[in-house]
Predict the 3D structure of the following.
Amino acid sequence: RKEVEQDPGPFNVPEGATVAFNCTYSNSASQSFFWYRQDCRKEPKLLMSVYSSGNEDGRFTAQLNRASQYISLLIRDSKLSDSATYLCVVNEDTSGTYKYIFGTGTRLKVLA
Amino acid sequence: ETGVTQSPTHLIKTRGQQVTLRCSSQSGHNTVSWYQQALGQGPQFIFQYYREEENGRGNFPPRFSGLQFPNYSSELNVNALELDDSALYLCASSRDGGAGELFFGEGSRLTVL
């Protein structure tokens, strides 16, 4: 089983739609969680951190469910500029050594 | 702009050759990690350097090695290149041993023929 699993998509949605991505992780000792966005042939950039209480940043909402070991990202009112690959990232802490584990990414295409 | 710079941006090598990739970390960051990203895949963790010492390694063979310098810049060396080593190599800098946000460079795209 992969350490971090995501549906690779692609998700093709019309402008204005709401879309949700899920991600599961295998290591129950994982410490922190993130969503990164990666545009085609570019480097990943932090979209948002994911907290146990859930957090929202404008049209983006992230949730963490530690009991079920999954993370979600909800995008409301999709824009053309949201088209990108969304990477689920888990930071494992092993005796003070941190290691970031990336999922394969979920591709989103927002259509006009 | 993240302040993380990588060089070279593109390079072509042949099987069996050796390659060195370089990364300058963002000011104030003492941790550098390296990732390999094959086409259509997420970045795979190679290793991490914190204060000039390797302090974490992914599932990569010993022919992948690295260094971190006193100014926290870093090198990734790959010996005996194989065709499957063709990928985008990403460097990321962060603070405090990798506990915080990663700031990525634009990557070095390696093609092995």
Remarks:
- Chain B has a mean pLDDT of 93.
